[in-house]
Amino acid sequence: MVFGSSKLLQLLMDSRIQDYLGNNKEILPPNFDYLTILSFLLWGAGIYIPTYLMAGTVKQMLEPKITTRKELNKVIEEEKEKLGLKSKIDYLIDLEKPAPSIVIKDRMGTYWIYLDQLPTRSLIAHELHHIYDGWVDRTMKFINAGKKIPLKETVYYLFVEEPRTILYSLSGIRL
Description:
Order of helices and strands: EHHHEEEHHH
Radius of gyration: 17 Å
Largest sheet: 4 strands, mixed
Number of strands: 4
Number of helices: 6
Number of domains: 1
Helix content: 55-70%
């Protein structure tokens, strides 16, 4: 079941993401410090991932699901207002194709929230915070240019931006 503006958008998003991932198999530069990688993995596996799973995911599981377009549009507008976002935001929900929730920005300037589950308020707040903090705009510059997202950006996202976004979606606190 697909909700949102069009199945064509879903196909476009899927092909853009697959093209991006398919063309960027080299993840690490040849001279990268593997001890740093090990540190990130141990920290991530020991602290970050369990915290994220326990806090963000549990809250989303316990919250009531948004089941109508009217309700979802209302929640998006309320959360946009809280963050001071003025941009056009649309969404696509595809319950048949499991994928991580993401936000992209099309060339016309519209942000698209792609979801594989019925959303909750905290999930919408989480995805809109990625627009608020500039992550979507920064990453779309790389994707639209056919480039991979630099490792430095990815590490910053995982260890700074994503925890800030989780904090916001749990508590409403913006850092």
